[in-house]
Amino acid sequence: MTTTTSRVTVVEKIFSANDQIAALNRSLLDEHHILSINLMASPGAGKTSFILSTIQAVAHDTRVGVVEGDTAPVTIDADKITAVGMPAVQINTGGDCHLDAVMLRGGLQQLPLNEIDLLVVENVGNLICPAAFNLGTHLNVLIASIPEGDDKPYKYPAIYRGVDVLIINKIDLKPYVRFNMDYFRQGVEMLNPGVTTFPISCTTREGVDEWVNWLKVRVAQAKGR
Amino acid sequence: MHELSVTESILNIALKHAEQAEAKRVTDLHLVIGRLSSLIDDSIQFYWDMISENTICQGATLHFERVPAKMVCMDCGKEYTLDGDLTPCPACHGNHVRVLSGDQFWLDSLEIEK
Which of A11, A96, A177, B31 has the fewest CB atoms within 10 Å, measured from its CB? Predict the structure, then answer.
């Protein structure tokens, strides 16, 4: 038998399997009228504190569910959320640097979706990989924090380019840290012109109301969908 | 970055299409990757050699074609391509520029033996 060679045209996106599951996640969330957030940031930027501050401000009329992504099998973050009475699931990525749509799907199956208005997905602390994986959530929110330095938009352009909301956290530390806000914002503006931005402090609660008021409008819109 | 999971996706897609084409062996894969994608060719090749072992893709060569990013200026509307670092608009030199495409990544074609 002779061997013949030929060329097969494929043209298939490498992330297509992830994107298909992401689309299923989105439909599931829409069916339950949930507004969902993919929260991304570097380790230590204050993701869990930000979630807790948000929960504290909305808990009287909004039911929040949280999916915590971590690379190690710990439940430190999820425990903090369940301690304030909101449902949370911890996803261990098994060392992987990001959450993907399949992992989130597993998390969603463990949550009481009928009892949730706002879902916050806390991605793995990382400014590179989470940007590449669509989860199917409605809003990409990035937390930058003052102690990280003002050059991060220049060094991690992909994540800044793809976000819908930028939180600048720990602004109470500005007097103690060299952080040129103009330089930072110029970098952001080049990558994501006009992105909605909230400077806040989870410690002093400065700016938290502005963020929460903005968020509540979106939660209400999702409820009416 | 996450080259291992990306390489697994490449293998799954390649095997699916190779089986549909009734291939005995895959010799070459042609991948197209956007200029702004942070994936590293050498790293993908490294994982590829490991995970394609004992499949019909074993020994196949990966070819990467880098395509420029497409940008649009928010101030003057000029569309331009970018083949290196981010630069201001070439027409008005403004910094209000948005990326239209540049982080795409797809498997374009396979070369197979039947």
Answer: A11
- Tell me whether residues A17 and B98 touch, CB distance under 8 A: no
Instruction: Answer whether A5 sits within 8 Å of B113, measured CB to CB.
Output: yes
pLDDT of residue A1: 61
- pLDDT at position B1: 58
The type of residue at A198 is F
Structure tokens at A35: 């507004």
Q: What pLDDT digit, counting tens, does each position of A20-31 carry? A: 999 999 999 999
Task: Give ipTM to 2 decimals.
Answer: 0.83
Residues A162/A94/A104/A164 CA torsion (nearest 10 deg): -20
Token pair 């699931």 is found at: A89
**How does pLDDT run across A195-211, given as a tens digit for each residue?**
999 999 999 999 999 99
How many residue contacts between A and B have a Cβ separation below 8 Å? 96
> Residue A149 — pLDDT band, cuts 50, 70, 90?
very high
Confidence of residue A96 (pLDDT cuts 50, 70, 90): confident
Cβ atoms of A165 and A198 within 8 Å: the answer is yes
- Inter-CA distances, B101 with A32, A157, B38, B67, Å: 32, 14, 14, 10
Q: What are A73-79's contacts with CB under 8 Å, separation 24+? A: A77/A48, A77/A122
Q: How far apart are CA B99 and CA A76, in angstroms?
A: 38
- A8: nearest CA in chain B? B110
Contacts of residue B101, Cβ cutoff 8 Å, sequence gap at least 6:
B34, B69, B70
Which residue is it, tokens 């990280």? A148
- Beta sheet of A64-70, edge-to-edge order: A88-92, A64-70, A118-122, A35-41, A139-145, A165-169, A196-199
Q: How many degrees, rounded to 5, is the angle at CA B60 between CA B58 and CA B64?
A: 140
Helices A16-31/B3-20 angle, 10° precision: 100
A167 to chain B, minimum CA–CA distance in Å? 20
Backbone angles phi, psi at B56, to 5 degrees: -70, -5
Do A193 and B10 lie within an 8 Å CB cutoff? no
